[in-house]
Amino acid sequence: MKYPAFGALALAVALPVTLLGQPTKPGTAKKTTPRKPAPAEAPSSTQPAPQSIMTVPNWLPPVNPIQPTATTLHDLVDTKLDVRFDWAKQWLLGTATVTVRPHFYPQTQLVLDAKGFDVKSVKLVTGGKEKNLNFQYDKRRLAITLDRTYARTEQYQVRIQYVAKPNELPSGGSAAIRQAKGLYFINPLGTEKNKPRQLWTQGETEGSSCWYPTIDRPNQRMTQEISMTVEQQFKTLSNGLLVSSRKNNDGTRTDTWRQTLPHAPYLTMMAVGDFAVVNDSWRGKAVDYYVEPQNAPDAKPLFGRTPQMLEFFSKKLGMDYPWEKYSQVVVRDYVSGAMENTTATVHGTEMTMRTRRQLVDGNSDDVIAHELIHQWFGDYVTAESWSNLPLNEAFANYGEYLWNEFKYGRDAADLWGQRQLNLYLEEAQGKREPLVRYRYAEREDMFDRHSYQKGGQVLHMLRGYVGDDAFFSALNQYLSKHKLSAVELADLRLTFEEVTGEDLNWFFDQWFLQRGHPQVAVAHSYADGKVTLRVAQKQDTLYQPVYRLPVTVTTWNNDKPTDHRIVVTKASQTFQLPASQKPALVQFDSDKTLVGELTEEKSQDELVYQFYHARNFQSKTQAIAELKPKVADLTVSSMMRNALNDPFWGVRVAALEGLRRYRGPEGGAVRKDIERVATTDKDSRVRATGIATLSAFLNEDYGRVYTQALNDSSYLVLGAAITALTKAPNTAAMSRIEALRNEKNPAIVGALSTYFTLNGNIDQYQWYLAQLDDADVATLYQLLQDFGTYMLRIPAVERDKALKKMELMARTNPNYEVRLGAYKGLSTLSENMPALKTTLADIRSKEKDERLIGIYNLLQ
């Protein structure tokens, strides 16, 4: 499903994330900007801190009712829509012709999901003739009384004329999807400056029935045809192929899109806007990129690897991309990150769009690959219920790993995997659920770091256990057997068992159907030609299993590794490994596939040895992270300096983070190395981290480096330089920073906002007001808080306009993150403007979003 902006999951207690995505230890939460790509001030170890054992865990969920797969009374066969739009009222005027058949039992009534409609008429269509049908409608479901009893062998058509009014629906939403009203009009009257008029849809989970009548369940499939009547200047996009485009006498145009392979209703989409369409192709199929006209030159640099991705996934899965075409459209104010609608992915501008200059700091391949592999996992084979969501999302998440591995190498893929594991472990501090969970309070609860990040890492572990040949053979068989149908977890397990010949109930039970993860502590000793390995599982086994853990333990003697395959099955277990002499290193889970928390007792010499003999990225960064407290040693400092020259940029970043505030031997030489990397490294992410590392050395002046960095081509480096200069600006830098006020890049806007809170005056007031109109959601969350701090620096008499604007945003902005940012900004001001406390209390009392209500309660 949607590629979620999980950085906004816990804005009130948001966790800092470095460029490596390292975890924050429990109890060290601090404010940060959601998804802000700047290095954190104080990175923590790449190895997560063990959870404390709790008698009653704070993550133990309440008992919710079982959420069964939807009962199928009718099968959708086909849906034809003829729609036009009232932009002023933000209505859709539609006619839907729905073809259905009873699933098994004879039926005298058809019930369709239809949320918030005005239903004008319902008719049976037979042989070109229409017959009125009686119906009952409660604004949620349309119950149609049929003219007779229909058997499962009989197909029939119902035609419904209706008006959809999505803005009159409750906003709904979740951490992954900010709203749930299905159809969205963007700047419908054209009154918002710098924003185009657009219209787009978002169907998952059950938003499609907010704009057309259907059976809005993931275990339904239908072919479809959508005719959209729009103004001539607009482009349209929908599922399938454009089969006709007709100019009308009233100056409008009707485009008809048809999809001939069936898919689930939540994957239906429309997009309308003044788009530039940049054409590409793959094996003769159209591959198109819809962007705003000013972004047309950036479309190929951004999306141009899509044909290569199509080729890669088709070969890797042993199944060619199955649909008629593949399009991607970038829209404004999207309520999620991106969405894998069949043949037509929608991307939010904030998540995906990059200019050529922004691409210097990294591309959007992860989200592009995520949505593309969904065309197989989610669209071609669909989870039958939201309980089984990881069958969609875990595979999409793992598709990112596969693409990184293929395109950018194993180190890049393992860095990506480490980030995913740490994101899950952060969420697991307060929430532990099964991956496939049949008891949830709301279906939107499924869209979390369990379904995505943990799910992807579990698949990686499964791949490591069965081997590449079996893993990809099983995926091919799973897709081939279940194509164009709905599946549950057992279908995946049975496929892997058929391929491998092994009963894998134990694996699927503990990793998909039980909550939590192993917390493993390992110690070792050597005597009498044997390594004694002591393994303890520390998780609270009252609520989590004792895991069966097949892992590789590697011992090194004379620089030669020996792999030992062991299976941990008990809470406390001892293993004897043969060794002719004391090993230089003993490494548990040396393949680094374990989903969980691992602590190993290792000496400094062992960790240094591990760095130089590491077989993967995680082993190197583990050594760097665990040696950080011991950087007073010359051997360690030499290792860290060596890491600054590692071929992979991620290792260089890890070394820089490990050297913050370094005060050990070779201090001057170390700082010179850091300065060299900060100014000359070929990777902008390394240069930015180098600047942040230099800025952590207190009472040392690197202003020359920061000022020079203000000329860097990288926005990331530029933002890091502004942030570094915030506490100690120099004359040369101040004028240069002022000259950046017209930059729209979020990294620069966020850095300037922070800078002005400490160095601003009344001259930046209008700049802040302008950003409130133009900035994206993530930037606004930070900027509104900074604005509150900034206004403490200006006369109270000047604040009135900003206060009114911030109050309005805190009350009415459609994005809850923005409302929260505005509230927190006003809260800062209330410290010396007591009258605002009454306003804040009123805002709290009238807030209806449960997420914000909970956060406000914490903030009081």
Structure notes:
It holds the Pfam family Peptidase_M1_N. Residues 22-31 have a biased composition (Low complexity). Keywords: Aminopeptidase, Hydrolase, Metal-binding, Metalloprotease, Protease, Signal, Zinc. One of its GO terms (biological process) is proteolysis. The protein has 860 residues and is α+β, with helices and mostly antiparallel strands. Among the domains are: 1-56 and 382-517, Neutral Protease Domain 2 (Neutral Protease, domain 2), CATH 1.10.390.10; 71-183 and 211-273, Immunoglobulin-like; 275-365 and 374-379, Orthogonal Bundle (Neutral Protease, domain 2); 519-607, Immunoglobulin-like (Sandwich), CATH 2.60.40.1840. The protein is built from 26 helices and 29 strands. Helices cover 35% and strands 23% of the residues. α5 crosses α7 and α6 (410-428) packs across α7 (450-466). The strands form seven sheets. It has an eight-stranded mixed β-sheet with strand order 5-4-8-2-1-11-14-13, with no helix packed on it. A five-stranded mixed β-sheet has the order 16-17-18-20-19. The two termini are 35 Å apart. β16 and β17 (285-291) form a beta hairpin. The radius of gyration is 28 Å and the shape is globular.
Distance between the termini: 35 Å
Show unreliable segments: 6-17, 22-56
Largest sheet: 8 strands, mixed
Based on secondary structure, the structural category is alpha+beta
CATH topology name of the domain at 1-56 and 382-517:
Neutral Protease, domain 2
CATH C-level label of the domain at 1-56 and 382-517: Mainly Alpha
CATH homologous superfamily identity of the domain at 1-56 and 382-517? Neutral Protease Domain 2
Radius of gyration: 28 Å
**What helical percentage do the residues reach?**
25-40%
What is the annotated CATH architecture of the domain at 1-56 and 382-517?
Answer: Orthogonal Bundle
Kindly report the spatial arrangement of strands forming the biggest sheet. Answer: 5-4-8-2-1-11-14-13
General form: globular
GO molecular function: alanyl aminopeptidase activity; metalloaminopeptidase activity; peptide binding; zinc ion binding
Region (Disordered): 22-60
Biased composition (Polar residues): 44-55
Protein name: Aminopeptidase N
